[in-house]
Every structure is written in structure tokens, then in C-alpha cells.
Amino acid sequence: MELRNDNENKSLLGQVDWLTVILYAILVVAGAVSIYAATYNYERSSSMFSLTEFSGKQFLWIGLSFVIGFSLLLIDRRLYEAYAYPIYAVMILLLIVTAFVAPDIKGSRSWLTFGPVSMQPAEFAKTATALALAKLFSTYGFQLKDFKSYAIAGTIILLPILCIILERETGSALVYTALIFVLYREGMSGFVLFAALCAIVYFVLVLKFAASAIMGIELGIFIVFIIIMAIIVAMLLFYCRSFILGRNVLLGYLGCGLVAWVLIALGVPVNGYLFFGLTIGASLIYLLIAMFHDDLRKVLTTVIWAVASIVFMFSVNYAFNNVLQDHQQKRIKVTLGIVDDPKFTGYNVNQAKIAIGSGGIIGNGFLNGTQTKLKFVPEQHTDFIFCTIGEEEGFVGCTIVLFLFLALILRIMHIAERQHTAFGRVYAYCVASILIFHLAVNVGMVIGLCPVIGIPLPFFSYGGSSLWGFTFLLFILLRIDAGRADYGNW
What we know:
This protein is mainly alpha-helical. The chain has two domains: about 80-190 and about 335-465 and about 480-485, no CATH class; about 210-325, no CATH class. It has helices at about 5-15, 20-40, 55-75, 75-80, 85-100, 120-140, 145-165, 170-175, 180-185, 190-210, 220-240, 245-265, 270-290, 295-320, 325-335, 345-360, 370-375, 385-415, 420-445, 465-480, and strands at about 110-115, 115-120, 215, 215-220. A two-stranded antiparallel ribbon has the order 1-2. It is built from 20 helices and four strands.
């Protein structure tokens, strides 16, 4: 490991982004205090720093995190880029080994145990994946411009996802999908993000409105058909910039809709699947013919998107019933309001919302949260730590915490944009994307907007692996950023 001499170390400390370090310090200390509040027991109260308390252990992890962080700052920034691929390869191998040798803990095989200490490799694989992706984009001449480049970048992201799914830790695997935003920043077509958004909307609508029917088809599928037709017209008008094609397809849809309405009014039964199949099918055939007289690539993209949308729509129920596990299906149904199960599957979220709601504007005060003190909220010091903040510090406390996260994320994005190399820029956006995903999904599941998938709130949830994982991510970024002034000196 290459280290710097004393003069270089002094110069390095002057180049470190101390605002980011301060925000990090505030968040981790606030997290440990929240853990103490979440686990406080009036009958056997002890010091916040006692190692018999979860908060005391967390403060120990925090102290070691600062040691790790400042050690990472002493490593030559060039080594992170030079050894990015070997680090990634080792982590992938470790993830695979973990899936086979780790003990089964609550249905997951993601923790390696070393005596009294446990470690979750998936938390550290985020750093390795970010480094590998950054290394790829720093390769001379690499750009997201063809299938090969997309395949390589996608493989780097997909490998840890598959390995972690093998460990039966779906929540942690989903975190890596946030790296798609990095690809978008580096030149990926916004059409991919649009397609991903459409897939989410289709999935929710098909499941949410499966109980009702119109024209003999499920209401959710009916709505998705309408959305697909509307997007086809919008793409022709704004993406293909073809007013004639967009106008003709729109008129065709309106005409078919009018015929269907008249038939229904006259009491003639209309098969919804046949109606939409013929209507959309006719429009796609028309577009295929029109390709020879218009922009071939863009019109073909519209046709492929429409066909893929229909295929995905009809695959939702199959995937939901045959791919997802029972507990995952129940969590999604509870989140979407399809079923009401406050005593079992929905218990955690229901109690968390009660706790947050009881906090009101300014909260019940430190150590005065009844829901958390009486242990009504399971996992309240890990995945559901945010409800402790809401109950004791109220809306004001939650807002302050969210603003601190926002400040950190915006600072990281600022650091990303001032990098002189693709390696530094891409790595910084990887860090920002991972933090945004963790924050949005964790808070979302605590307040019932997202299914419970079991991912921690950065810097707040109890656990050394999570805290150290984010420490690695952040302090390697700080080291890369501190060396931006001499990025060309090899």
C-alpha cells in the first residue's frame, strides 16, 4: 500500500472536503443517539456509551469508522483506480462464497460470522461495484454508444445483484439498480429510464386494479392499454417529430373508441382483449408500413416499445405469482392497499406510522416515545429507526434529518461535477445514487409508500457492516476528490 510523506499528508488534509466530513459526523452521531432512544429501557437504564447498549456498540463502530476513513485518505488515490477490477473480482467471489457458507438467518444467507462478530459482504460490494464501474468509464475511448458497451456496464452491475439474490437478500440486491442513474449521467438514453418508469406504473396498475373489470378485462390492464395508446401517440409527435403519423394514429384510436362506445350503447357485447388487440395491432402495422417513408430508427423504437409494453403487461401476474416469494407478495399487496393485514404482514408499517403520527409537529421529546419504548415497532433500531425520530422529534426532527441527507447528497453531486477525470465523476455519482436509493426506500417503507424490503437508513440504522460500508464509499470519494488538483501526475 502506497502512503504519502508528512508534507504530502499536510497538503492532503487541506484538500479534503471537510464539509462532507462534518455532515457525515453529524449523521452518524445522530444515528447512535437515535439507536439509544429506540432501545432505551427504563427498568435497566445505562449510559449511552455503555457497550451493553446497542448505542454503545454503535459508538464503537463509529470510532472505528473514523479510523478506517482517515486511513483510506492516506492511501494514494491512484491505487483505487489501479486495483478497481481486482477489488471487484474479490468481492464477487466473496459474495458467492457467502451464499454457500453463511448460516441461515431469518431466511437469508448473507452474513459471515467470525466468533462474536458478523459481517455482511453485500454492504462492502457497493464500493467495489462503484470502483469497477468508474474504472470502466475511465478506460480510454469507452462510451455508452453500442450494445457491447451497454453489455459490459450492465454486467458489472448485474453480477453483484445475482450473487446477493443467491443469498436470498433481495432488498440489498435492489440497491444496485440505483446505478442506472449513473449510466444515464454518462450518456445512456433517457428512453431507458422512461421504459423503467413505465414498467413500474404497469406493475402497480395491473396488480392494484385486478379486482374490477371493464369490457371483460381487468381494470388495471384496461388502464395500461389506454396509457400505451396515449404514449404511442406522444412518441410519434414528440420523439419521432412526425405530426402526420401521430395525427393519423390518434384519429384511428378515437374512431375505434367511438365504434366501441356505440356498440356498447346498443347492447352489443365487446370483447376488450379483441378490441385493444385489433386497435393497437392495426396502428403498429400502419407504423411498420410508414417506416419506409419516415425516420426508420425512431418509428421502429416506438413499435418495439409498444410490443414490449404489452408483453410486460401480460407477464406481471405470472411473475408476481410464480417468481416472488409469498412474503414478498404479501408485502406488495399491503403496500398497494390490495389487502389489509395490520396484525401480520402489515404490522411493522402500521406500528411505524402510528409512532410517527404520535410525534406530531415537535415530537414527544427525547426518550418519551411510547411506541418505541413499549417495543410496539419491530426492528426499531435497525430498518425502522426513522420512526423513532418521528415519534420523539416530530415533523421538525424528521425534516432536519432529511435536510442533512439532502445537503450531503447535493455536496457529493457538487464533488462529482468538479472532478477532472471520468473515474472520479462516475464514482461520485455512484455514491450519490446509492445514498438516494437507501434514503428514499427506507423512509418510504417506514411511512408505507414502499414495500418492506429490509434495507438500512444510512448512518442511522444499527450495525457495523452498514456503517463501515457507507464509510468506505464516502471516504474513498473524499480521497479521490482531494487529489483532483494533481490528477495528471503519474
